[in-house]
Amino acid sequence: MADATRPQAAPQVGIVLGSDSDLPIIRPAVAVLEELGLAYELVIASAHRTPARVAQYAATAEERGLEVIIAVAGGAAHLPGVLAAGTVLPVIGVPVGGSILGGMDALLSIAQMPGGVPVGCTGINNGKNAALLAAAILAVKYPELREKLKAYRQRQAEEVDAKNERLRQLGVESYLEQHLR
Ligand code: RP5
User: Fold this and answer.
1) Backbone angles phi, psi at 130, to 5 degrees
2) Global pTM?
3) Pocket test for ligand 1, best of 17, 20, 22, 96 (most atoms within 8 A of CB)
4) 105 CB less than 6 Å from ligand 1?
5) How far is residue 9 from each of residues 5, 33, 67, 92, measured CA to CA in Å?
């Protein structure tokens, strides 16, 4: 049985940030990967400021043992597409919302990849879903990870149920008092 838990020296998930200003977006992703016990690496490499290094990263990703790449970029966000052009590993793009267009530019840049080189695309700033989607891709290969993902969903559902139960017990007015004011 394949084992999803590998030494940190051999990361399965590569996270590439177009800039250090994208760091806050990836914090929830890193939390998810750590919770699921997935080995990852984090690098800053820009498709327009350091194009050679991005090309090198994509070209060597597979031989270094990476299995999925998360690429975070804002503005004219070509980083995920450029990475995807250099590898057949799955690439998940996360559009960053900090631009004057609020991230719609990055969203469309990533989602509208022309046919032939696919890039997955999360919602704007949704690093958390990028990590969960990366885990779901890896879970096809690692049964143990699939079970962890099911447990994650179960915990999430229980948290919603607990909140609903608290709302029911307190009544709308008290609940709003505690949570909104
Ligand atoms: C993109 O440009 C980065 O991904 C970032 O979201 C955006 C702005 O970068 P900085 O000017 O903050 O470095 O390449």
Assistant:
1) -60, -45
2) 0.92
3) 22
4) no
5) 11, 15, 14, 22
